[in-house]
């Protein structure tokens, strides 16, 4: 179950930037210092709950990091930042503070209505200025909802009715509008720094909890903008000293034209076609930095803020792009191996990071490889925080486990768009179930008691063929991981290997023979190892997905399985006696234990004719869903079975005149439609079917006599 060495070069789909040329394709990955890999990842701006867009990036990078470290054996030094100083944070903190103050004052109903109407008036201006059709539609929905919420309060005021409930409902619905209105009127008066530090601290803690819940490894180093202000100031000063920055009206800007005209540098390496995109550039500057006065301070509209003058704060604050440049440069130096981020960060954020850092270090290869994760859509629609079309990580984890979410990501390329939808998650659920059933079957085989020598059985052709397939699949997995860490192909190869094992086990079961335990154990251990590398197995597990007690670290499987095995063997003995003594009531109780009682405890017993009962521990909710599905199908199945049981064996083939032309005295076919006598082999198969029907028919007659069938 060991990992094969990387005999072939590892390639990654990267955007590689050295000198003034651009290579945006799959390229051989060669770190600067042997097996050591330095990696900087853009972290979140912590002003609100983490959502599935964050999960798209951080789960994907976690998978890539684990594969580089645990499969290929690289020594990965992984750094990530937290942006806790930003225009979004300042605005959100002010809005939250002002709204809470407003709510605590409990404004009279008349005052609340006047304020909501004033907020709606300001909101209408924003709506008229919005050109993006999706955003405009979202704003129209908000406006309509607030107007509807105001109507009950207006009616209550006109009729002199109690208005407390209507006021509360309107206050909740109009929170965003009122917060924006209050900020426009009073935001400049909010200067207490603690207000601006409490919000990011709270949401950073929530982000870390979400990452832990998703089984995302923590970074080796975490940087916060608030803790690196001196380093950022020094970084800005050197850029100015090198001739690529200038001061204007208290702010400092990066001179893109001066940088681009330098012989040693080029601007816009990542997305050259986006240079000059004012919408993207203004989004990168921040909500509080795109007023007409601020924009007029720049020599060129393409220039970005290195340091922003801030009303009420004589020291000002850093620009967004320079934060990552300074923090990454401080830790990783003049050149790093990998820089990661979402696809939407390419321009202007990463392009400006590159330019600023290369202006600081006076080099042309600050980042050797950029890795950008694909977009995430929600049921085919663009996910956008500003459009309020997003799902928080906490809400996603209420519906699906961290493993299921990770499997969904593994089933898609890390660099392509991923659609988070019911179909995507259903595929992940089915894959998890498919793999888990295999692990449970192998565990059952391994639990069968054998002496030491019995563990090593003679290999027949079937074992040799399965082992050859095993090695072929391991080679295919290795090739896929070397090819841009193609986890989608890896999971398909693993599925194909399990399907091959299932066929082998089914053939052994049909022949009433135990499968080769050592071979199946090797395959199961390899698959466990690969899923652990991908982070899809969260804890230490000797084989397969671990089963833990609810809310504990207890290894439920090793604790309860010996007792379940004893129960299974006792039940098997009781069933045998009940069949011999013809006591159907005991058999019914045995079935009730299997079908009704044990699933409630997360336990499944699988009875197989002529073989020991298979005991499996599973997810209680999943087992109960399975039980309900079986109950819905059972009446149809039982009706079909009863109809078949009623057919006397002497009549079962007589209706098949399209296949047979002559029959013996028992109703068994002797000649085909062309009048040729049936071969011995075919006659033998028909005799077996006849005998099986004979047994069924006798069971039916006996049931009729005892009153079991009406």
UniProtKB/TrEMBL annotation:
Its EC number is 6.1.1.16. One of its GO terms (cellular component) is cytoplasm. CDD domains: CysRS_core. Residues 663-682 are annotated as: Disordered. It catalyses: tRNA(Cys) + L-cysteine + ATP = L-cysteinyl-tRNA(Cys) + AMP + diphosphate. Residues 31-428 form the tRNA synthetases class I catalytic domain. Residues 663-680 have a biased composition (Basic and acidic residues). Its cofactor is Zn(2+). Keywords: Aminoacyl-tRNA synthetase, ATP-binding, Ligase, Metal-binding, Nucleotide-binding, Protein biosynthesis, Zinc. It comes from the Eukaryota. It is an enzyme of class 6 (ligase). One of its GO terms (biological process) is cysteinyl-tRNA aminoacylation. GO terms for molecular function: ATP binding; cysteine-tRNA ligase activity; metal ion binding. Coiled coil: none annotated. Catalyzes the ATP-dependent ligation of cysteine to tRNA(Cys). This is Cysteine--tRNA ligase, cytoplasmic. The gene is CARS1.
């Amino acid at each position: 179950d060991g990992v094969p060495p990387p005999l072939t070069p590892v390639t990654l789909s990267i955007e590689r930037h050295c000198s003034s040329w651009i290579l945006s394709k799959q390229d051989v990955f060669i770190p600067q210092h042997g097996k050591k890999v330095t990696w900087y990842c853009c972290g979140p701006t912590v002003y609100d709950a983490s959502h599935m867009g964050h999960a798209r990036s951080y789960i994907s990078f976690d998978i890539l990091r684990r594969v580089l470290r645990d499969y290929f054996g690289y020594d990965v030094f992984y750094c990530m930042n937290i942006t806790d100083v930003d225009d979004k944070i300042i605005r959100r903190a002010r809005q939250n503070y002002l709204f809470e103050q407003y709510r605590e004052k409990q404004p009279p109903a008349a005052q609340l209505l006047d304020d909501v109407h004033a907020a709606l008036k300001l909101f209408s201006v924003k709506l008229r200025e919005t050109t993006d059709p999706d955003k405009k539609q979202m704003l129209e929905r908000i406006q309509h909802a607030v107007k509807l919420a105001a109507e009950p309060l207006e009616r209550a005021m006109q009729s002199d009715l109690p208005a407390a409930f209507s006021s509360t409902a309107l206050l909740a619905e109009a929170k965003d509008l009122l917060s924006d209105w209050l900020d426009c009127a009073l935001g400049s008066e909010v200067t207490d720094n603690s207000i601006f530090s409490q919000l990011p601290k709270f949401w950073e803690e929530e982000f870390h909890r979400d990452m832990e819940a998703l089984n995302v490894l923590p970074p080796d180093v975490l940087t916060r903008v608030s803790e690196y202000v001196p380093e950022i100031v020094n970084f800005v000063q050197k850029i100015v000293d090198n001739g690529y920055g200038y001061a204007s009206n208290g702010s400092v800007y990066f001179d893109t034209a001066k940088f681009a005209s330098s012989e040693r540098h080029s601007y816009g390496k990542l997305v050259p076609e986006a240079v000059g995109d004012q919408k993207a550039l203004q989004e990168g500057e921040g909500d509080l930095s795109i007023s007409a006065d601020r924009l007029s301070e720049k020599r060129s509209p393409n220039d970005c803020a290195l340091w922003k003058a801030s009303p009420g704060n004589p020291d000002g604050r850093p620009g967004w792009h320079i934060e990552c440049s300074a923090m990454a440069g401080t830790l990783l130096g003049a050149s790093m191996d990998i820089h990661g981020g979402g696809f939407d960060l390419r321009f202007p954020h990463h392009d400006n990071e590159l330019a600023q850092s290369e202006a600081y270090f006076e080099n042309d290869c600050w980042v050797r490889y950029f890795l950008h994760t694909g977009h995430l859509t929600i049921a085919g629609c663009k996910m956008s925080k500003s459009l309020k079309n997003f799902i928080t990580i906490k809400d996603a984890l209420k519906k699906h486990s961290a493993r299921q979410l990770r499997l969904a990501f593994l089933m898609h390329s890390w660099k392509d768009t991923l659609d988070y939808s019911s179909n995507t998650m259903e595929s992940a659920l089915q894959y998890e179930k498919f793999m888990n059933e295999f692990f449970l079957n192998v565990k059952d085989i391994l639990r069968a008691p054998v002496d030491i020598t019995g563990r090593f059985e003679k290999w027949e052709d079937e074992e040799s063929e399965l082992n050859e397939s095993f090695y072929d699949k391991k080679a295919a997995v290795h090739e896929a991981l070397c090819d841009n860490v193609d986890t989608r192909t890896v999971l398909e190869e693993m599925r194909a290997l399990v399907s091959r094992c299932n066929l082998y086990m089914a053939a052994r079961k049909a022949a009433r023979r135990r499968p080769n335990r050592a071979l199946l154990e090797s395959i199961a251990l390899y698959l466990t190892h690969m899923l652990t590398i991908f982070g899809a197995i969260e804890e230490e597990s000797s084989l397969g997905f671990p089963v833990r007690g609810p809310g504990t670290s207890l290894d439920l499987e090793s604790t309860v399985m010996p007792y379940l095995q004893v129960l299974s063997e006792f039940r098997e003995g009781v069933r045998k006696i009940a069949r011999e003594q013809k006591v159907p009531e005991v058999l019914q109780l045995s079935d009730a234990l299997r079908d009704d009682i044990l699933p409630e405890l997360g336990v499944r017993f699988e009875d197989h004719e002529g073989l020991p009962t298979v005991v499996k521990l599973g997810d209680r909710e999943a087992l109960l869903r399975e039980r309900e599905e079986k109950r819905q199908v059972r009446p149809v199945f039982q009706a079909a079975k009863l109809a078949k049981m009623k057919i006397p064996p002497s009549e079962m083939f007589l209706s098949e005149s399209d296949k047979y032309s002559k029959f013996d005295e028992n109703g068994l076919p002797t000649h085909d439609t062309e009048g040729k006598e049936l071969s011995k082999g075919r006659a033998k198969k028909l005799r077996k079917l006849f005998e099986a029907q004979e047994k069924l028919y006798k069971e039916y007659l006996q049931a009729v006599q005892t009153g079991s069938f009406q």
